[in-house]
Amino acid sequence: MGKQVNGHEVIQLFESFSPKKYAMEDDPIGLQVGQLNKPVKKVLVALDVLEEVVDEAIEMRADLIIAHHPPIFRPLKKLALDSASGRIIEKLIKHDIAVYAAHTNLDVAKGGVNDLLADALGLKDTKVMVPTFEEKLKKLAVFVPESHESEVREALANAGAGAIGAYSRCSFSSNGTGRFLPGEGTDPYIGAKGKLEEVKECRIETIFPENIERKVISAMMKAHPYEEPAYDIFPLDNQGEMLGLGRVGSLDKELSLKEFALHVKEVFDLEGLRVAGDLSSPIKKVAVLGGDGNKYFSQAKFNGADVYVTGDFYYHTAHDAMMMGLNIVDPGHNVEKVMKAGVAKRMEALSKELGWEIEFTASELNTDPFQFL
Ligand SMILES: [Zn+2]
User: In the chain, what percentage of residues exceed pLDDT 90?
Assistant: First the structure.
């Protein structure tokens, strides 16, 4: 039997890689229906919250649905139970199933929808196509007795601190003297209550992206021998890593546009897709953006892409793209279904590490509204 957890803990774990701050403005992400203040044992991961998906959640006795597309996208004007949207909310509340939406924040996140799409297409050397969020850097300086220097340094590096570009485990140490007077009620690791102590200590400095602060500090605290470790955290003005929407990467070998489009069709198991451009043109560099990426087509071209894979492409925008020499492959939104297995697997692994009693299941339903005749 693992540890029982509540909805807040599940979402906190999810937001450790897909925090809300990554979302575009006005994207209605987060808890949309129900509450998180309850035990959660089963989670259904879905692309869309349609009525069939809610039925699937009821059937498997899920406590929570993590969905990519927010079911309440525009403010509701009414909650009539004779409408599908009303019935969905009614069923969710009657069965105490919460719905949490992670939309553009999951698109931006590392290992999120766009990375999953790029991986599925087999893209190499991928980079962000449209930067939207700078992951700010922080510096930690911690004072450690010399006996525990390497232990604390190890713990910090294992928590992900000290990564600069392609370098990892970067840190700096300097030696000095620490002084302290243990007061009433203390149980000092070194020295005794009421006696001024001097200890050979070192100051370890390292940097980390803001989003892993909690993990870094708790790893440091665990490895540090003192009851009250002395440490400072500094915000930095250095340029942090840019995260964002879409990915640009290269195929292993050059394909024609026709071969590439068929590759997309096969990878995502689609009945059909739309292609714009000369079917014989060579494709090596690929831009992909989950969802509706119309407004970013010039960034795809600017990043050197031969083809841009995105959903809901407009007729006239396709003309503009073709005139620019950019080919378009539009497989719709349903390719974002890769998030179901991706998120379920990742959450399953993270919660297993923590010894949680919880199951994550990818929804088995196909919610693509379109068919091809
Ligand atoms: Zn979408």
Answer: 88
